[in-house]
Protein backbone atom coordinates (compact mmCIF):
# COMPACT_ATOMS: atom_id res chain seq x y z
CA UNK A 1 0.00 0.00 0.00
CA UNK A 2 1.14 3.53 -0.74
CA UNK A 3 0.02 6.75 0.94
CA UNK A 4 -1.00 9.25 -1.74
CA UNK A 5 -2.26 12.52 -0.25
CA UNK A 6 -4.32 14.52 2.19
CA UNK A 7 -7.43 15.92 0.53
CA UNK A 8 -9.09 19.12 1.74
CA UNK A 9 -12.64 20.18 1.01
CA UNK A 10 -12.73 23.70 -0.47
CA UNK A 11 -15.60 25.96 -1.48
CA UNK A 12 -13.76 27.65 -4.37
CA UNK A 13 -10.99 25.66 -6.04
CA UNK A 14 -9.59 28.72 -7.84
CA UNK A 15 -9.32 30.83 -4.68
CA UNK A 16 -7.92 27.93 -2.64
CA UNK A 17 -5.32 27.11 -5.30
CA UNK A 18 -4.19 30.74 -5.44
CA UNK A 19 -3.99 30.86 -1.63
CA UNK A 20 -1.79 27.76 -1.35
CA UNK A 21 0.39 28.70 -4.32
CA UNK A 22 0.89 32.34 -3.27
CA UNK A 23 1.31 31.92 0.49
CA UNK A 24 3.13 28.59 0.65
CA UNK A 25 4.75 28.41 -2.79
CA UNK A 26 3.14 25.04 -3.55
CA UNK A 27 3.53 23.74 -7.09
CA UNK A 28 0.66 22.24 -9.05
CA UNK A 29 1.04 18.57 -9.92
CA UNK A 30 -2.34 17.67 -11.44
CA UNK A 31 -5.43 19.71 -12.29
CA UNK A 32 -8.77 17.97 -12.83
CA UNK A 33 -10.91 21.09 -12.57
CA UNK A 34 -12.64 20.69 -9.24
CA UNK A 35 -9.78 18.55 -7.89
CA UNK A 36 -6.14 19.56 -7.91
CA UNK A 37 -3.03 18.17 -6.32
CA UNK A 38 0.27 19.77 -5.46
CA UNK A 39 3.69 18.16 -5.74
CA UNK A 40 3.95 17.98 -1.93
CA UNK A 41 1.01 15.57 -1.69
CA UNK A 42 -1.71 18.01 -0.64
CA UNK A 43 -4.89 17.90 -2.73
CA UNK A 44 -7.92 20.21 -2.86
CA UNK A 45 -11.46 19.18 -3.77
CA UNK A 46 -14.35 21.47 -4.61
CA UNK A 47 -17.79 19.83 -4.26
CA UNK A 48 -16.51 17.46 -1.59
CA UNK A 49 -20.08 16.47 -0.75
CA UNK A 50 -20.47 15.12 -4.28
CA UNK A 51 -17.21 13.18 -4.03
CA UNK A 52 -18.00 11.44 -0.74
CA UNK A 53 -21.76 11.15 -1.33
CA UNK A 54 -22.83 13.16 1.70
CA UNK A 55 -25.34 16.00 1.94
CA UNK A 56 -23.69 19.46 1.83
CA UNK A 57 -24.79 20.19 5.40
CA UNK A 58 -22.75 17.21 6.65
CA UNK A 59 -19.51 18.76 5.36
CA UNK A 60 -18.22 20.73 8.33
CA UNK A 61 -16.01 23.76 8.68
CA UNK A 62 -13.54 24.40 11.48
CA UNK A 63 -13.67 20.90 12.87
CA UNK A 64 -10.46 21.71 14.78
CA UNK A 65 -9.43 18.07 14.86
CA UNK A 66 -6.42 18.16 12.53
CA UNK A 67 -3.96 20.61 11.09
CA UNK A 68 -1.82 20.91 7.98
CA UNK A 69 1.79 21.51 8.98
CA UNK A 70 4.48 23.39 7.11
CA UNK A 71 8.02 24.30 8.14
CA UNK A 72 9.65 27.51 6.98
CA UNK A 73 13.40 28.30 7.08
CA UNK A 74 12.70 32.06 7.06
CA UNK A 75 10.02 32.06 9.75
CA UNK A 76 10.23 35.81 10.45
CA UNK A 77 9.96 36.51 6.71
CA UNK A 78 6.89 34.28 6.54
CA UNK A 79 5.29 36.23 9.40
CA UNK A 80 5.79 39.39 7.34
CA UNK A 81 4.21 37.66 4.31
CA UNK A 82 1.16 36.78 6.43
CA UNK A 83 0.46 40.51 6.87
CA UNK A 84 -0.69 40.51 3.23
CA UNK A 85 -3.65 38.37 4.38
CA UNK A 86 -5.44 40.62 6.91
CA UNK A 87 -8.64 38.55 6.82
CA UNK A 88 -7.01 35.36 8.13
CA UNK A 89 -8.26 34.17 11.48
CA UNK A 90 -5.39 33.26 13.81
CA UNK A 91 -5.51 30.74 16.64
CA UNK A 92 -3.55 32.98 18.98
CA UNK A 93 -0.13 34.54 18.62
CA UNK A 94 3.18 33.00 17.63
CA UNK A 95 4.18 30.47 20.28
CA UNK A 96 7.49 28.86 21.07
CA UNK A 97 7.10 25.22 22.05
CA UNK A 98 9.15 23.66 24.84
CA UNK A 99 11.51 22.14 22.24
CA UNK A 100 12.22 25.63 20.85
CA UNK A 101 10.28 25.66 17.61
CA UNK A 102 8.27 28.81 16.95
CA UNK A 103 4.89 28.27 15.28
CA UNK A 104 1.86 30.21 14.16
CA UNK A 105 -1.58 28.73 13.53
CA UNK A 106 -4.43 30.10 11.47
CA UNK A 107 -7.41 28.97 9.42
CA UNK A 108 -7.18 28.75 5.64
CA UNK A 109 -10.00 30.08 3.45
CA UNK A 110 -12.12 27.00 4.19
CA UNK A 111 -11.57 26.68 7.94
CA UNK A 112 -8.74 24.13 7.99
CA UNK A 113 -6.09 24.74 10.65
CA UNK A 114 -2.70 25.54 9.19
CA UNK A 115 0.44 25.42 11.31
CA UNK A 116 3.60 27.03 10.03
CA UNK A 117 6.60 26.33 12.16
CA UNK A 118 10.19 27.35 12.11
CA UNK A 119 12.24 24.79 10.18
CA UNK A 120 13.68 22.37 12.74
CA UNK A 121 17.19 22.69 11.27
CA UNK A 122 16.93 26.42 11.93
CA UNK A 123 15.92 25.73 15.54
CA UNK A 124 19.00 23.56 16.02
CA UNK A 125 21.23 26.21 14.42
CA UNK A 126 19.64 28.93 16.59
CA UNK A 127 20.50 26.97 19.74
CA UNK A 128 24.03 26.12 18.58
CA UNK A 129 24.65 29.75 17.52
CA UNK A 130 23.51 30.92 20.96
CA UNK A 131 26.35 28.91 22.52
CA UNK A 132 24.51 25.72 23.45
CA UNK A 133 26.33 22.47 22.82
CA UNK A 134 24.81 19.71 20.74
CA UNK A 135 24.20 17.77 23.96
CA UNK A 136 22.40 20.74 25.55
CA UNK A 137 20.39 21.20 22.36
CA UNK A 138 19.49 17.50 22.48
CA UNK A 139 18.16 17.85 26.03
CA UNK A 140 16.24 21.05 25.20
CA UNK A 141 14.64 19.55 22.10
CA UNK A 142 13.97 16.12 23.59
CA UNK A 143 15.76 14.35 20.74
CA UNK A 144 18.96 12.36 20.61
CA UNK A 145 22.19 13.92 19.36
CA UNK A 146 22.12 11.25 16.65
CA UNK A 147 18.64 12.31 15.46
CA UNK A 148 19.58 16.00 15.50
CA UNK A 149 22.73 15.24 13.52
CA UNK A 150 20.70 13.25 10.96
CA UNK A 151 18.33 16.18 10.58
CA UNK A 152 21.19 18.62 10.09
CA UNK A 153 22.72 16.36 7.42
CA UNK A 154 19.54 16.04 5.34
Can you walk through the features of this model?
By secondary structure, the chain is of the alpha/beta class. 33% of the residues lie in helices and 25% in strands. It contains six helices and eight strands; from the N terminus they run βαβββαβαβββααα. The chain has a four-stranded mixed β-sheet with strand order 1-4-3-2. A four-stranded mixed β-sheet has the order 5-8-7-6. Strand 3 and strand 4 (42-46) form a beta hairpin. The longest helix is centred in the N-terminal third of the chain and has 12 residues, at 13-24. The radius of gyration is 18 Å and the shape is elongated.
Strand-pairing-aware structural class: alpha/beta
Rg to the nearest angstrom? 18 Å
| Strand order, largest beta sheet | 1-4-3-2
Number of helices: 6
How does the SSE layout of this entry go?
Elements lengths: L5 E5 L2 H12 L3 E4 L3 E4 L3 E5 L1 H5 L14 E6 L2 H8 L12 E2 L5 E6 L5 E6 L1 H10 L4 H8 L3 H8 L2
Parallel strand pairs: 1-4, 5-8
Antiparallel strand pairs: 2-3, 3-4, 6-7, 7-8
What characteristics describe this protein?
25% strand, four-stranded mixed sheet, 154 residues, alpha/beta, 6 helices
Summarize the structure.
With 154 residues, the protein is of the alpha/beta class. It has six helices and eight strands, in the order βαβββαβαβββααα. A hairpin with a 5-residue loop joins strand 7 and strand 8.
